[in-house]
Amino acid sequence: MYHPYNQHIKYLSFICLAGFFFLFSCSSSRLTKFDKQLNEANLQNSFHGLVVMDPASNKVLYNTNGDKYFTPASNTKIVTLFTGLKMIPKHFPTMKYLEKNDSVYVIPTGDPSWLHPYLMDSTAINFLKPKKSVSVYLKNSETERFGPGWAWEDYHFYFSPERSPLPLYGNVATIINNDSLEVSPKFFLDSVQVTYSGKRRDEFKNQFYMNPERKDTVEVPFIVKEELIRNLLESVLQKKIAVLESLPLAQKKVLYGIKSDSIYKRMMHVSDNFLAEQILMTASSTLSDTLGIQRAIDHMLENELSFLEQQPRWVDGSGLSRYNLFTPKSFVQILQKLYQEVDSERLFTLFPNWDATGTISKWDNPTVEPFIFAKTGTLGNNFNLSGYLKTKSGKLLIFSFMNNHFKIPNSEIRLYIYNLLKSLHETH
């Protein structure tokens, strides 16, 4: 049944968004063009929030639904980056340890780089190899292997490795099926079957399946258990490893590994969920020997993020959970803090370039300088983009554009956002 009030609500978001462009152009022909773009975007039946800020003047240039809560998806990694920069030193704490004669007692810190397939850090391994006796304590985490609100059926996909206090190999088995079958770590070689299966791993055990028609590399999360960690360490260290039942009570030393920025950059550029979760684990190691993602979150909310006008619901590091709730204004405030506290060259290296096709590993257009440095956040029916925009006039703008509950393809949302940001780049 038609009702004029319902018709008013239907076009309310259209009117608000159209007003955005009025702020940046007084040309009626340009407004007509923007109106057409908004109609083509077909956004009226979903929920959107946009905040644009000029950090030089500290003025909010545009705000629609900026104080409303959205599902952020991987925009959560912006907050994880902020946490790492605040709580973790320049070099990642790869482990805590006690040393007595030729014996060493290891207390994990959650460092994800141990033998990671891309980071490939061997700092801890090289430190432990010459030791006569190595003992490891693996009971110092209060974090569950999966985050609250994660999709349980994603257990066998590359983007959903388990969280753990002492991750090895990125907590994934890397399976290569070309002329022959290769598996890393080799420990799993006999646990891989080349066969047709709807899953890449058994749900309850480390039995892996590789489609015989696939001739590429597949990363499959493995189930983390204490016995497996001991076996993997024994294999690489070539010595027996003792697993401790209690935490040694003494002053610990800290061994530092690779540069923290190398972990942050990969997390941001490839939206690595595993690294995001482990960054929060390691952040918590700077507070106590007991690792807990919630500990790091609570610390940040009570201290470094207490300035936020809308306190978020924040439950994981990656944004895999739909329980997370952030406002566009909160992201703009965090991005402003990052801009104030981090050297610009470093900051724009940590944030990936972005255009209508998505995140760009390398900018190839010689005629246009990269002008969008931002993190995407994608879940089913949700796409968000938050970051920095450089304008042709030399200004820098901070923005957060959050889009939830749409049914059109992500590609249409990306193109719409790109055109909007490009107009800002050219006119402001």
Search tags:
2 domains; 23% strand; 12 helices; 428 residues; 32% helix; alpha+beta; Beta-lactamase
If you had to describe this structure to a student in words, what would you say it looks like?
The protein has twelve helices and 17 strands. It has 428 residues and is of the alpha+beta class. The chain folds into two domains: 163 residues, Beta-lactamase (3-Layer(aba) Sandwich), CATH 3.40.710; 167 residues, no CATH class. Strands 2-1-17-16-15 form a five-stranded antiparallel β-sheet, sandwiched between helices. A hairpin with a 3-residue loop joins strand 6 and strand 7. The radius of gyration is 24 Å and the shape is globular. The N terminus is likely disordered.
Please write the string of helix (H) and strand (E) elements. Answer: HHHEEHEEHEEEEEEHEEHHHHHEEEEEH
User: On the 0-100 scale, what is the average pLDDT?
Assistant: 89
How is the main sheet built? 5 strands, antiparallel
How much helical structure, as a percent, in the residues? 25-40%
Q: How many whole angstroms does the radius of gyration measure?
A: 24 Å
Beta content comes to 15-25%
Any low-confidence stretches, pLDDT <50, length ≥5?
Answer: 1-35
Helix segment tally: 12
Gross geometry: globular
Number of DSSP strands? 17
State the separation between the terminal residues, measured CA to CA: 44 Å
Structural class: alpha+beta
Biggest sheet, strands in spatial order? Answer: 2-1-17-16-15
SSE layout and pairing:
Layout: H1 4-10, H2 12-22, H3 28-41, E1 47-54, E2 59-64, H4 76-87, E3 91-100, E4 103-108, H5 123-128, E5 133-137, E6 172-177, E7 181-184, E8 192-194, E9 208-210, E10 217-221, H6 226-237, E11 241-244, E12 253-259, H7 260-270, H8 273-285, H9 293-302, H10 328-341, H11 344-350, E13 353-355, E14 358-360, E15 372-379, E16 382-390, E17 396-404, H12 410-427
Parallel strand pairs: 4-5, 5-11, 8-9
Antiparallel strand pairs: 1-2, 1-17, 3-4, 3-12, 6-7, 6-10, 13-14, 15-16, 16-17
